[in-house]
Design goal:
alpha+beta, 4-stranded antiparallel β-sheet, 16% strand, nucleotide-binding, UBQ-conjugating_AS, ubl conjugation pathway, ligase activity, EC 2.3.2.23
């Protein structure tokens, strides 16, 4: 009985110590990504932790790329990083109302690198650039918003009308 109890205690404490090491590792990784993003000269994207006390929740800003219906528009997103980041993708959603074939009305995003094609080599900057690119190049074969996908292909004027009807201007971060 004592050996079973000791065995249970030792396995119960192992995850705690590895969790704290994982937590430190995730924190260092995200701090490094924040510095990289801050010194990056990539236009139209930015992201920061929401508070000094929680590096796992960020707010991002994406400006629509030129020569797309989103040119001149700014969108706020949320990024929530899991405790085992970068081995698991963060949860990323549009906070700003969005009209797009690969974004549903709740802000959920259908983007393969945030799901089945996630890799630990990706980082916050990769995510932001992929989202910015998605604005101009939707995947209409896998839409979350079927009406937006249809209008993207068939009626750009109506698409733009509905996009602007849904759009809400935001302040910068």
């Amino acid at each position: 009985m004592d050996s079973v109890l000791l065995s249970r205690q030792s396995t119960a404490t192992k995850p705690m110590s590895s969790l704290s090491n994982e937590s430190i590792s995730v924190s260092k990784r995200l701090q490094s990504e924040l510095v990289q993003l801050m010194f990056s000269k990539t236009p139209g994207i930015s992201a920061f932790p929401e508070s000094d006390s929680n590096i796992l929740k960020w707010t991002g800003l994406i400006e629509g790329p030129s020569e797309t219906p989103y040119h001149g528009l700014k969108f706020k997103i949320s990024l929530e990083f899991p405790p085992n980041y970068p081995y698991t993708a963060p949860t990323v959603k549009f906070v700003s109302p969005m009209w797009h074939p690969n974004v549903d009305m709740s802000g959920n995003i259908c983007l393969d690198i945030l799901k089945e094609k996630w890799s630990a080599i990706y980082n916050v900057q990769t995510i932001l650039l992929s989202l910015q690119s998605l604005l101009g190049e939707p995947n209409n074969k896998s839409p979350l918003n079927a009406q937006a996908a249809h209008l993207w292909d068939t009626d750009p004027e109506q698409y733009m009308r509905l996009l602007l009807q849904r759009y809400e201007e935001i302040d910068s971060l």
